[in-house]
């Protein structure tokens, strides 16, 4: 069971083997996901929504991301672990970005970091990579800019935004990113980017013409019922499973079915 490195991901693209990536934010689920054979685990700042219940990804702090990142890293043997740089910890300038990335690497022992944006962050990307830290890019619907977009709808449908996205993708590759996440953009555009670039392109709501897919673990497990964009395939209905288990427990406690004679000392 060989450890997945950025080099392995590059070979996978070369060999046309699709890359499977999921988020995780804690030790217990990261252990299951890693042992199931996932290639990449993203400690996403979607933890802000999924773990903490915030409306957006903006509130989560660097120390909170580090808590999640370190928890995941302690569970993982095989997958490559990517930790998101949260909002406000890299946009100021490239020195701030490097300081934040170094803090994540030192305090989580993760393999790499991810940040959102193209031309605006390319100096920061270069500086982080110069320090020996692998960086993944993220273009298209970048949730840290939700207040600029105003909506979580599909990005880059218009020619101007599509053109900038392609330019940004090239800039990130030239800066040395080992991969890029493309979120919620037309499949045709994502496929074009994946064809033009030599680094792996991982899609979420970006069609099948890319080099791999990523989903939020809790979404694909069906833990929440509210969030159902078109791109989300639910592999389980954990909401129903957990509701059933909890209801059964409540019933057993109330009826003194639990604990039984064999379940006590
Ligand atoms: O934070 C996250 O979960 C992400 C993925 C949706 C790519 O950035
Ligand atoms: Na994210």
TrEMBL record:
The Swiss-Prot or TrEMBL record lists the needed cofactor(s) as: Mg(2+)
Q: Which EC number(s) does UniProt give?
A: 2.1.2.11
UniProt similarity note: Belongs to the PanB family.
| Subunit text | Homodecamer; pentamer of dimers.
The Swiss-Prot or TrEMBL record annotates one GO molecular function as: magnesium ion binding
Protein name per the record: 3-methyl-2-oxobutanoate hydroxymethyltransferase
List the residue ranges forming a coiled coil, or say none. Answer: none
Q: Record's GO cellular component, any one?
A: cytoplasm
Question: Would I find Signal among this entry's keywords?
Answer: no
Q: Which residues bind Mg(2+)?
A: 45, 84, 116
Task: Report which superkingdom the organism of origin falls in.
Answer: Bacteria
Q: Which organism is the protein's source?
A: Plebeiibacterium marinum
Pathway in which the depicted protein is active: Cofactor biosynthesis; (R)-pantothenate biosynthesis; (R)-pantoate from 3-methyl-2-oxobutanoate: step 1/2
GO aspect biological process, one term: pantothenate biosynthetic process
- Cofactor remark from the record: Binds 1 Mg(2+) ion per subunit.
Keywords of the record, alphabetical order, are: Cytoplasm, Magnesium, Metal-binding, Pantothenate biosynthesis, Transferase
What role does it play?
Answer: Catalyzes the reversible reaction in which hydroxymethyl group from 5,10-methylenetetrahydrofolate is transferred onto alpha-ketoisovalerate to form ketopantoate.
User: What enzyme class is recorded for this protein?
Assistant: transferase
Residues involved in 3-methyl-2-oxobutanoate binding: 45-46, 84, 114
- Intracellular or extracellular location(s): Cytoplasm
């Amino acid at each position: 069971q060989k450890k997945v490195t950025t080099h392995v991901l590059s070979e996978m693209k070369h060999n046309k083997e699709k890359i499977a990536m999921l988020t995780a934010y804690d030790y217990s689920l990261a252990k299951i996901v890693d042992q199931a054979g996932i290639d990449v685990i993203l400690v996403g700042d979607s933890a802000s929504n999924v773990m903490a219940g915030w409306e957006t990804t903006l509130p989560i702090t660097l120390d909170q991301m580090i808590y999640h990142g370190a928890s995941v890293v302690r569970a993982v043997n095989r997958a490559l672990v990517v930790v998101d740089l949260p909002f406000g910890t890299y946009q100021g300038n490239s020195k701030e970005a490097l300081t934040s990335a170094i803090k994540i690497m030192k305090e989580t022992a993760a393999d790499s970091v991810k940040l959102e944006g193209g031309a605006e962050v390319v100096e920061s990307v270069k500086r982080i990579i110069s320090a020996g830290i692998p960086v993944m890019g993220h273009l298209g619907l970048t949730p840290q800019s939700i207040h600029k977009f105003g909506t979580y709808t599909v990005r880059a449908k218009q020619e101007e935004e599509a053109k900038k996205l392609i330019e940004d993708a090239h800039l990130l590759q030239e800066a040395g990113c080992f991969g890029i996440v493309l979120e919620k953009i037309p499949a045709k555009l994502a496929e074009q980017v994946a064809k033009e670039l030599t680094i792996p392109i991982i899609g979420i709501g970006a069609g099948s013409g890319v080099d791999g897919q990523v989903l939020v673990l809790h979404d694909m497990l069906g833990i929440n019922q509210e969030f159902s964009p078109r791109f989300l395939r639910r592999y389980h209905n954990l909401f129903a499973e957990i509701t059933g288990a909890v209801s059964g427990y409540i019933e057993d406690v109330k009826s003194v079915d639990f604990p039984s004679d064999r379940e006590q000392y």
